[in-house]
Amino acid sequence: MKFFIDTANLDEIKEAQALGVLDGVTTNPSLMAKEGIKGKDNILKHYKAICDIVDGDVSAEVIATDFDNMVREGEELAALNPQIVVKLPMIADGIKACKYFSDKGIKTNVTLVFSAGQALLAAKAGATYMSPFLGRLDDVSTDGLQLIADIRLIYDNYGFETQILSASVRHTMHVVNCAKIGSDVMTGPLSSITGLLKHPLTDSGLAKFLEDYKKGN
Ligand code: E4P
After folding, report:
1. Which residues participate directly in catalysis (predicted)?
2. In the chain, where are the structural domains located?
3. Class assignment of domain 2-216?
């Protein structure tokens, strides 16, 4: 399973990259706003800075909600760097734009997916990635992991190449369960990746090894 980090914070991206397990980055307009990145030029500059840090795919979301402007915006984003993936909302014009970009060989990520039907449409439109929002479904007492399992089954039934990018991941157990289900990618905060390191038996075991080494030397 690929690990993406869901942030626009350059320090967090650098930290995840330095760990050596990062495969890409996802951003969204809320995450950009959280970092205070405003105005088209600054936003484009920020995407370039992210691409300079990571080796993998970087999802950059369009703001437009109509086909023509999504295409204009997406083409501008894609021209920034071959790592850019044009992130499109799961609405009719987003699906049309997804098909347009897929036909042109430009990578896409259909975002804000909350049902298996929406996931099917994204795959039919040739999306590179399709992002079901696990945590936001869990927030409203709906089983997000079950949705990902259903999508896995559907995609496997037909051999769709669209990658399931489990998004809105909140914690380490989401990551582990996504891996069990066979999600292709997960995107979450830095803590959902670094949290995987932790186990008290690792810490106590290492402390004992070092103590015993000191005794013998
Ligand atoms: C997906 O690409 C989104 O950026 C993200 O995962 C949403 O997560 P949230 O529900 O934590 O905002």
Report:
1. 87 (schiff-base intermediate with substrate)
2. 2-216
3. alpha beta
215 is catalytic: no
Comparing CA positions, the residue from 94, 141, 96, 86 lying closest to residue 113 is 94
Ligand 1 pocket test target in 3, 4, 7, 28 with most atoms within 8 Å of CB:
28
144 beta partners: none
In this predicted complex, what is the ipTM?
0.96
Return all residues near 77 (Cβ < 8 A) that are at least 6 apart: 44, 47, 60, 62, 84, 86
Please state, in angstroms and as integers, the Cα–Cα distance from residue 20 to each residue in 2, 14, 46, 165, following that order. 12, 10, 22, 20
Q: Residues with Cβ within 6 A of ligand 1?
A: 6, 26, 28, 111, 131, 133, 135-136, 167-168, 187
Residue 143 neighbours by CB distance under 10 Å: 12
Q: How far apart are CA 148 and CA 165, in angstroms?
A: 9
Minimal-distance CA residue to ligand 1 atom 6: 168
CB atoms within 10 A of CB 10: 14
- 77 near 62, Cβ under 8 Å? yes
Nearest Cα residue to 53 out of 27, 76, 33, 72:
27
105-124 pLDDT tens trace? 999 999 999 999 999 999 99
